């Protein structure tokens, strides 16, 4: 049984590379006055959220996605810097170019992290550990940024490992070590297990991955339904998902969260600007979208989505803008309703050129998330 499990785990060499405090690190790299100081990448404002925090700011409890006002309260002397996604994307592309020297099997997850399958690597290095070490060194030498890496026989374990020695470190999980490594981990370390799922697990006595491992599949199914099989396998370190290169874009979108709630007609100017932004981004690839999506969030946090799918690909920014505005006009809520967020998206992409793929396939446009 153990030999069979090692065989299942050991047929790939996967590296998960995760840039360290990426946006904040780019800011510190480009402005020497920021180095060693608590940097928070966020717009200041009561509805802004933190995009990234330097490790100096994290010491005070500042974390990504927390409200900017909370970050300011935790670290009053933090330096707040509005995000500059043009520079972050340029740095991300530099990292991607380094990846391609070692493998063509790259699956970007965002601007700052990616999976690499280095079972066979271009440099002929004997181990995945050496590949990861060389990639991290090249990122530092050429881009003056640090990255952490996890090396493991599958994506699930590699992602956990990359967080083990942050920042600027790497960690290896060998196939024969996977089970003992997992048993003592809190279930919250499993990617995809959020606070809600973690609370549900606690209700049935699950706190550690080892608790899942001790349960049979029938018991897990009673508590977690279709998710049970995935949990059963992950608790045993089994993940058959391959690194998927050239992933087809599912959606590209941009959002505005307003400093103050506004009526529906006031959303139009934001819709026009967001439509122009995502049209410019989507046009960078030789593909078209057939579905236009409008997203609204009311003052009361109710999310509304409206969409229209065409038989033909969307051919112009004007069509995108006019359609998004028409969808907005048909929301159907009372005129006095106020809104806190609007978003515009394109989806249902068709791929014209299989070779024309880029790291943007995994990205949503976030630069306009907060005003």
Which features would summarize this protein structure in a list?
single chain; 371 residues; alpha+beta; Alpha-Beta Plaits; MutS, DNA mismatch repair protein, domain I; DNA polymerase, domain 1; 4 domains; 5-stranded mixed sheet; globular; disordered C terminus; DNA-binding; DNA polymerase IV; DNA damage; magnesium ion binding
Explained architecture:
The protein has 371 residues and is an alpha+beta fold. It folds into 4 domains: 2-20 and 86-177, Reverse transcriptase/Diguanylate cyclase domain (Alpha-Beta Plaits, 2-Layer Sandwich), CATH 3.30.70; 22-83, 3-Layer(aba) Sandwich (MutS, DNA mismatch repair protein, domain I), CATH 3.40.1170; 184-234, DNA polymerase, domain 1 (Orthogonal Bundle); 251-362, Dna Ligase, domain 1. 35% of the residues lie in helices and 21% in strands. It contains 14 helices and 12 strands. The chain has helices at residues 2-9, 22-30, 55-58, 68-74, 85-100, 128-143, 155-162, 178-183, 195-203, 209-213, 217-224, 228-234, 268-282, 317-329; strands spanning 14-19, 39-41, 52-53, 79-81, 106-110, 113-117, 147-152, 170-172, 251-263, 287-298, 303-309, 338-351. Strands 5-6-1-7-8 form a 5-stranded mixed β-sheet. The protein is globular, with a radius of gyration of 22 Å. It starts with a helix and ends in a 20-residue tail after the last strand. It is an enzyme of class 2 (transferase). Keywords: Cytoplasm, DNA damage, DNA repair, DNA replication, DNA-binding, DNA-directed DNA polymerase, Magnesium, Metal-binding, Mutator protein, Nucleotidyltransferase, Transferase. Its EC number is 2.7.7.7. Its cofactor is Mg(2+). InterPro entries: DNA/RNA_pol_sf, DNA_pol_Y-fam_lit_finger_sf, DNA_pol_Y-fam_little_finger, DNA_polymerase-Y, DNApol_IV, IMS_HHH_1, Rev_trsase/Diguanyl_cyclase, UmuC.
